[in-house]
Amino acid sequence: MNETTVEAAEVPLEEMGHDEAVAHMRARQNFALAVPAGLAAAVVGAALWAGFVYVTHYQLGLIAVAVGALVGYAVRVAGNGIDQKFGILGAACAALGWLLGTVMVDVAMVAQLADISFLDALGRLDLSNIATLVMEASDAMDLLFFAIAVWEGYKFAFRHRF
Q1: Phi, psi (degrees; rounded to nearest 5) at 119
Q2: 93/112: higher pLDDT
Q3: I need a labelling partner for 53 at 20 to 30 A (CA). Which of 16, 93, 107, 115 fits?
Q4: Per-residue model confidence (pLDDT) at position 138
Q5: Distance between CA atoms of residues 117 and 114, nearest Å
Q6: Average pLDDT, whole number, for the chain?
């Protein structure tokens, strides 16, 4: 560690000037780590959402909002981002989480109606059937929850103020 690094580490962020603090935070950003964190959070959130529906037999759209917030938080923690690209990543991963969650929830509901296992129902669907299922099962409220989830993914993915 050289003398410059020691000095920078000893100065608290609150005591730095605005430009110096922004430069310090930008140096800590890690977009390459934020991408897999956002994708993993989207998959985990979607699986938890579908699991909730499968176990409780109750579809709760508010969980889509929680998936968006989970994704945004994961991107923020992993990426330490302050740039808008982290928000865009969070929004995109939240949209993916919503889509995957919607598909998994619809498959879970089909499995319950057909009295078969979730994996069996999933195995019987191809891509065109999944698209038809999502289109037929979605309504205006789903789009509202989608929009809120994407907003949460964006909003939570990076620091807005410093």
Answers
A1: -65, -35
A2: 93
A3: 93
A4: 80
A5: 9
A6: 86
What tokens appear for 161 in the block?
A: 């103020």
One-letter amino acid of 102: T
What does the chain come to in residues?
Answer: 162
The two tokens of residue 153 are 């993914």
End-to-end CA distance of the chain: 27
- Read off the tokens for 101: 């969650």
Over residues 50-63, the pLDDT tens digits come to: 888 888 888 788 89
Cα separation of 144 and 152, whole Å? 12
The four Cα atoms 133, 46, 126, 136 give a dihedral, to 10 degrees, of 10
The percent of the chain in helix, strand and coil, each rounded to the nearest 5, is: 80, 0, 20
pTM, entire model: 0.81
The sign of the dihedral angle between the CA atoms of 104, 106, 107, 108 is: positive
pLDDT at 162: 52
Cα gap 74→65, rounded to integer Å: 14
Q: Does residue 9 surpass a pLDDT of 90? A: no
How many other CB atoms are found less than 10 A from the CB of residue 94? Answer: 34
